Give the backbone structure.
Amino acid sequence: MDKMRQSGILMHISSLPGKFGTGDFGEGAYRFADFLKRTGTLNWQILPLGITGYGDSPYQSFSAFAGNPYFIDLQELINLGYLSEEEVEKADIEGDGRKVDFGALYERKMPLLRTAFHNARNDLKGEMKEFYMKEKWWLRDFAIFMALKNHHGGKSFKEWEEKYKLRDKEALYSFVSANRTETEFWIFTQYFFFRQWFRLKEYVNKLGIKIIGDIPIYVSEDGSDIWSAPEMFRLDEDLDMITKAGCPPDAFTDEGQLWGNPIYDWDAMKEDGYSWWIKRIRESFRLYDVVRIDHFRGFESFWEIEGHSDTAKSGWWSEGPGMDLFGEVKERLGEPEIMAEDLGFLTPEVTELIESTGFPGMKVLVFAFDSRENSDYLPHNYIKNSVVYTSNHDTQTVCGYMESAPEDERNFAVEYLLLSSSEGYGRGFMRGAWASVSYLAVAPMQDLLNLGDKARFNIPSTLGGNWHWRMNAGDITSDAEDFLKKLNRTYRRNNA
């Protein structure tokens, strides 16, 4: 398929401005979509929408299918009479508006959602039942899992009573019967999450803008996916991980990255016709228009580490499902618009897999300027079927990179991109990306705003201080809007 030239801005929902402690599906999201429309930007990229767990990461979620209740717009609940302005004001969940305080959201927003649930429960009984029946294939296990987690004080399911951990049918039936209100609360959160999300998506699509979503390759060790289908993962009889996921040492990390996610049992998945992955990808295309699959090289081969190891150094490469999986995807789902996050150590086999799928790979400009080599990330080496980023959620911002880069790299970037102090490093890198041959050019919002590393979103393999950055409503100046609009027009990425 010949893809037209286009652009996108990476802006996660949590980073949107708003008055309820985090970006959400409320007014700030609609106004951001309007901004993209005015500038001729045809794509809005977000990060995973799942429930954030340990470490606040959207890549460590309690479910591959459930949505994050933090993104529910409380204003709608107020307008419907399920919450009062006074209750929300008393909860004081906004904070300083410059960063997301996940602890405060858990302690203050979740009780507000519980209050709204108790007030709405009878009104919405019919709608919630209809929603539940439609989504029961994943929602039942998720609601029970979250109710059990609450029952056990938030502990990992590995620490639950054996009868719950190993899903004894009689024990689960008795628990649900005695805790129906709690399971219904979690159904309520998903009902409003999807109700508000699909309303927002419809609005965005009517503006001619696509939403690019994200599928993490792995699921959390403590989640309803592994609890409900342990046979699909490399686990022992106690449901402990035999091996776990990560990345080997490389130029960026001497120790490698120990992610700690469970490894799929790809033989079992193949025998089952990859039905779990088919459902996951199909569901993703219900939520998004385009899907970026994280750590795509892991489908060719993946770094596998002993379950008891506390370092990623001691791992080994194991063979992934390759085209066997994606052939099944194409047979069952047609030609979905997938982007392959192919960063990291690439072998000829990984390159061959990406070429066989036809999915575009990624280029990241902040990786390009090692003056000692002709990097694949330099724009003159790109192909049309690729997606170029100035930076991404796991890297420094462009300004942060340029302020800390070795002098020879910084000088090379200035010379190559003809950077000027008047436009700022972030926008200069955007100009270089937008001018490239890649069909899609994307920049995180931080680069359009020329922000430094105080606005960095995530430092991989670290805990604390990540995923917190938020934009204020006044941060998008007329200057920033005019720059993006002109950039899209100049480099023919606005579909004009």
